[in-house]
Amino acid sequence: MIDFIRREKIYILLVFFILAVNIFNSKSKEEVKNSHIQKEESLSGMTFNEIGLTEQKVRDYIASKEPKARFFRYGIIVGGFIFILAIFLNMAFIFFGRKPVLAIGANKTFVSWGISDILRVCVVVIFLGYVVAIIESFLFKMFQFDIGLNLRMMLNTFIIDIAVGAAVVYFVAVKHGEKIQALGLRFSSCFRNILSGVTAYVFILPLLLIVLLLSIMVLNFFGYTPPPQPVFDVFMEERRGNVLLLLTLFVSVLGPVVEEVFFRGFMYSAIKKRFGVVAAIFLSASIFSLLHTNIVGFLSIMILGALLAYLYETTGSLVSSITVHIIHNSIIVGFVFFIKELMT
Known about the structure:
Elements lengths: L1 H6 L1 H18 L2 H12 L14 H9 L3 H30 L18 H29 L5 H27 L14 H32 L8 H8 L3 H35 L1 H14 L7 H18 L3 H25 L1
């Protein structure tokens, strides 16, 4: 026990700091109350009917001659074609056994880091998150400036993503002396891996939609109201084009890349080393879904996480999983912009 404390004393101190900050924040009841009020008034916490979106309004917008409406109209046509293609891919798999993943390069890399390193990275990142929040609060109060809660949350998430990437690279490259290729950042057969990612996503798309719709129906039956989604609120409330562009790049590109490096390249590899492939796919996908804090989409996100881990295991590269993640997030962002257009 004493040896453990000596060896991990830095991380133990960081944990105590994190606990202390949480205890201090729990005493601020007024802040929690104000946050609760804001969540209730959030757009993402409302139904389509509550924000004034009806089926007729959608039809009228799609049929209009506005340039943006034409873009979304073509997008819906492409989406319909992709869905039909997905049905054919699933039928080919069921009746002919055709696998959707084209690349062959199984991930047989033995990594030197373990589950304890995952915990260390998590502690460091959470600590940095609190430090950033404290510094931000101090600066905003000093200069009497605030960018708004939603945009501030997105900025913090951006900084945390950078911190996650830096922490993972440090543990892999510096502490364990591995090359970054050990994280799956290999670009050989890049085009084939991208094609594998696209094909695999199209293949699993019907299952994701079915599971999501069933989850919504079940939760609605029990009267569950989903909590607000900060990302949705930021996109809906923001009007500055340059900020929206940065948010889009962050959600659609930077976020997926960092998350794949952490969840698949770093976490999945460590869990696989300890428990094997099947357990690693399930555990990493479950944690991936839990950290997205979305009960409505929990099962569909877990299925997506399992696909991402399977792609990494099958291809030996993060290119396929990054491709899927970027496509998935881009579709969600496109849907949010579509809702935003309907509300203008």
